[in-house]
Design brief:
The chain has 539 residues and is α/β, with parallel strands linked by helices. The protein has 18 helices and 25 strands. Strands 1, 2, 10, 11, 12, 13, 14, 15, 16, 17, 18, 20, 21 and 22 form a 14-stranded mixed sheet that branches. Strands 4-3-5-6-7 form a five-stranded parallel sheet, with helices on both faces. It has a three-stranded antiparallel sheet with strand order 8-9-19. The longest helix is centred in the N-terminal third of the chain and has 17 residues.
Length: 539
């Protein structure tokens, strides 16, 4: 399927099409799919196409019909995406929702969605009941993938109800809603992001499928992906992998270093993309002699910017002469907006006040335009001046499901308010400073966080929280929740004045399902729900 044709087929027919073409990639999973617990961990494309057809059949038997919506709420795995493909195959609008979310957030999202069918797992339903929320009651039919639960049928029961043969595949206009994903939810309940075939495949999938120098997937590659598969990123990754035909594709469903070591020992990757939080957890693997990352030519991070020490350690783990790190910046609503390649040489200097990783890069040629505007006047500012970053791309989502006014607040004609504060250099490169809601006048929180992790190896994560009439508060995560006073004093000696740090462990850092720090919740916990400098208007 040529990239220009992808949006016409949609995700419902994606795997069937490539199966007919005998696409040769072998997919290896870190664990079996929840929708096929006895199916093993090795799949060909025709086997995946058959699985999607079977899944579409039991979804139809469960009551999902053309024009309906379904909710996919489960543990992270690539079968979140396969379930979405199966739903789209029968003309149903699928919403992929992280099972990591709190019960009250899931309740809010399910009420907005009003699904005909909820596909989930027992632990998520149990967590809802513990919070006095009956999630199963929020759909006409609920299917529990790992056995029966109150108000829910089991997967085996759903499979047993399916009729012989597959339901027909309806035609879909590329401009119609095709899939719903959601934002990370760092500032509260995530927003349900609606994409069409034209936006998420015709534009974002096309970006993924271009044979860019250095960064494009090669047929000789073993590509590893450990992303959040409920995120919109999973669909362009899937479409691009099918089109570009790497030798192997390795799917890692969790961030446990033991899982990564086991899978990558058997299938050493040549490209590796995962969540920033997973990269951080895998640093110990990168430090080992004869590391499982020894053959990686390209690392990819797209969900959040990485701290320089982490990038440096992974580049050092590769035995390739010139390994690279592709740092992408984008949003669920608009896809990738800018990329930057980082090398060992670019990261050679340590402890700098203006870390390299804060420069997000230039807009994607032919796909994206970026400009920086004054948040008060909304007029474009000069190069080097601070403002809110706006993007123009054909990959922009259609709306926020159930929050259309909120979407309209961020749309300005063809332009999209990202809610990120930054500057634009004379060459067009964007330097990110902070989310608008998290800003502190005169400083960049994320810049200081990079500096501190670079200067103090014992720091696993640090978050700078700001509020009027208070000094910026560093919340510092270390292995044991401690750090010598003299080490901290030396690290901050030339930085803006900060409050005394709060020390915690990695597990105490509040995160979203994509590993991003929930700064709003951290502010509630450690600053007594203090107000922010930012308005939060474009979150």
């Amino acid at each position: 399927m040529a990239t220009a044709d992808v949006s016409r087929f949609g995700i419902g027919a994606l795997f069937a099409h490539y199966a007919e073409r005998e696409q040769p990639t072998i997919f290896h999973l870190s664990r079996a799919f929840d929708i096929a617990p006895d199916g093993g961990t090795r799949y060909t494309v025709p086997q995946l196409a058959d699985l999607i057809g079977e899944t579409a059949a039991w979804l139809h038997a469960a009551g999902a019909r053309q024009g309906d919506r379904i909710a996919i709420v489960k543990d992270n795995h690539w079968d979140c995406t396969l379930l979405a493909c199966a739903a789209a195959r029968i003309g149903v609008l699928p919403a992929m929702i992280s099972g990591h979310l709190a019960a009250d957030a899931l309740e809010t999202l399910l009420k907005r969605l009003d699904p005909a069918v909820l596909v989930t797992k027992r632990n998520i339903l149990e967590r809802g009941r513990a919070a006095e929320t009956d999630l199963a009651s929020l759909a006409r039919r609920t299917i529990s993938l790992d056995g029966e639960a109150p108000g829910a049928a089991s997967l085996a029961e759903a499979i047993g109800e399916r009729a012989d043969g597959e339901p027909p595949v309806p035609r879909r206009d590329p401009s119609e809603p095709m899939v719903v994903t959601h934002t990370s939810g760092t500032t509260g309940v995530p927003k349900l992001v609606v994409h069409s075939a034209g936006t998420i495949l015709g534009t974002l999938g096309k970006i993924e499928s271009v044979r860019w120098p250095i960064v494009a997937t090669r047929k000789s590659d073993t590509v590893a992906s450990g992303i959040a598969f409920v995120h919109g990123r999973s669909i362009p990754w899937t479409a691009g992998t099918l089109l570009l035909e790497p030798r192997k594709a390795v799917v890692v469903a969790d961030g446990d270093p033991a899982t990564a070591e086991r899978v990558f020992t058997e299938h050493p990757p040549t490209t590796c993309e995962t969540l920033p939080a997973f990269f951080t957890r895998w640093e110990g693997l990168a430090a080992k002699e004869n590391s499982v990352f020894r053959d990686v030519r390209l690392y990819v991070s797209t969900f959040d910017a990485m701290h320089p020490p982490t990038v440096r350690r992974f580049l050092a783990a590769s035995r390739r002469r010139f390994p690279a790190w592709l740092q992408g910046w984008g949003q669920s609503e608009a896809g990738p907006l800018a990329f930057r390649l980082l090398t060992r040489r670019a990261l050679a200097r340590t402890g700098e006040r203006h870390p390299t990783t804060r420069i997000a890069g230039r807009p994607l040629p032919y796909f994206t335009q970026l400009e920086v505007r004054d948040p008060e006047t909304m007029r474009k500012v000069r190069a080097g001046e601070r403002g809110v970053v706006f993007a123009r791309t054909k990959g922009r989502c259609l709306t926020y499901l159930g929050e259309e006014e909120r979407w309209s607040e961020k749309a300005d004609g063809d332009w999209w308010n990202t809610g990120d504060v930054g500057t634009r250099g004379r060459t067009g490169a964007i330097t990110l400073l902070d989310r608008e809601v998290d800003t502190i006048p005169g400083i960049s929180c994320i810049e200081l966080e990079d500096v501190l992790t670079d200067r103090v190896p014992a720091i696993e994560e640090v978050v700078i929280l700001g509020s009027p009439n208070q000094k910026p508060l560093p919340v510092v995560a270390t292995a044991d929740g401690k750090l010598p006073d003299d080490v901290w004093a030396k690290a901050v000696a030339d930085l803006p004045e900060l409050a005394d740090p709060v020390y915690i462990t990695w597990d105490e850092m509040l995160r979203t399902g994509t590993g991003k720090v929930r700064r709003g919740e951290m502010r509630k916990r450690y600053m007594d729900d203090a107000e922010t400098f930012g308005t939060g208007r474009w979150t």
